[in-house]
Write a structure and sequence with these properties.
The protein is globular and about 55 Å long. 50% of the residues lie in helices and 17% in strands. It is built from nine helices and six strands; from the N terminus they run αββααβααβαβααβα. It has a single domain, classed as Nucleotidyltransferase, domain 5, CATH 3.30.420. Helix 6 crosses helix 9. The termini are far apart. The chain is of the alpha/beta class and 262 residues long. The protein has a six-stranded mixed sheet with strand order 5-4-1-2-3-6, sandwiched between helices.
């Protein structure tokens, strides 16, 4: 994903989507959320260097996970002043290096109401959320006349990894059937190594708080800036979900259809 190219000008212009999840299936976490940021190679390399310097300056060993700011977390005892300064600087790095950012949320109720059982069994709420996330990136690429496939990089520790793999495979199948969706490869990597995956964690965490109507305030207030500009926060209409359900159901049937042998 990050190798040097024989065409460096082209390579540095190619966008990659770094994404992470937030939420869960249980009733106490009613929204599945995926958030992330599009970055080109040149800015990705610069971001990684500056992110490492940021964490070192606060004596933090990567990865930086937003959930660890809870009272029992690794950063639970960090002073309010330091916490605010750290988050403010992290937000500044994200905004200065991203091409754009994106988030999608899907409630368990919407998922169960809009998708037939055969789709739910294959994807789970996070696989479906990833498919919707990819569609959001596709529409943004069309809007900005971006012609190339977009590779996706997610944290290897994602508990919903297999559902994301299923969602990606089905979107790729729809694309091979003749509907271009800007879908590139799917890679899982260690978020302790990639600051951009830690940045995606911050975006997904902030997006989930917004989806569940929990204000981003105090030390986390600056995260709101990410969503104010150059951010696609998709709100999916029921008819879009139904269309996606139909396409994904058809793709499942295509995969499961037996091959005739003569």
């Amino acid at each position: 994903m990050h190798r040097d190219s024989d065409a460096p000008d082209l390579e540095t212009s190619i966008l990659r989507m770094y994404a992470d999840e937030s939420g869960g299936d249980d009733p106490g976490t009613p929204h599945a959320v995926i958030g992330g940021l599009l970055v080109n190679r040149k800015k990705a390399l610069a971001f990684e260097e500056k992110w490492d310097q940021l964490l070192q300056g606060y004596g933090i060993s990567p990865p930086l996970h937003m959930k660890e700011f809870g009272k029992d977390g690794r950063f639970g005892k960090m002073s309010r002043c330091c916490r605010k300064q750290l988050v403010d600087e992290a937000v500044g790095l994200i905004m200065s290096h991203r091409t754009a950012s994106q988030s999608v949320s899907l409630s368990n109720q919407e998922f169960k109401a809009s998708f037939p059982k055969e789709v739910r069994d294959v994807f789970g709420v996070y696989g479906m959320c990833f498919a919707l996330f990819a569609m959001g990136a596709h529409y943004s690429a069309i809007k900005n006349n971006y012609p190339l496939p977009i590779p996706y990089i997610l944290d290897d520790g994602n508990p919903y990894k297999q559902h994301v793999v299923s969602g990606h495979a089905s979107v790729m199948l729809i694309q091979r059937q003749g509907m271009p969706l800007h879908m590139g490869s799917l890679t899982f990597d260690d978020d302790a190594v990639w600051g951009l995956l830690q940045a995606a964690d911050l975006i997904a965490w902030g997006a989930r708080r917004r989806a569940t109507k929990i204000p981003l305030k105090g030390a986390f207030e600056s995260i709101n800036k990410i969503f104010d500009d150059h951010h696609n926060e998709a709100e999916w209409r029921p008819e879009w979900l139904q269309e996606s359900a139909m396409r994904l159901s058809n793709s499942i049937k295509a995969v499961q259809r037996p091959t005739l042998r003569f």
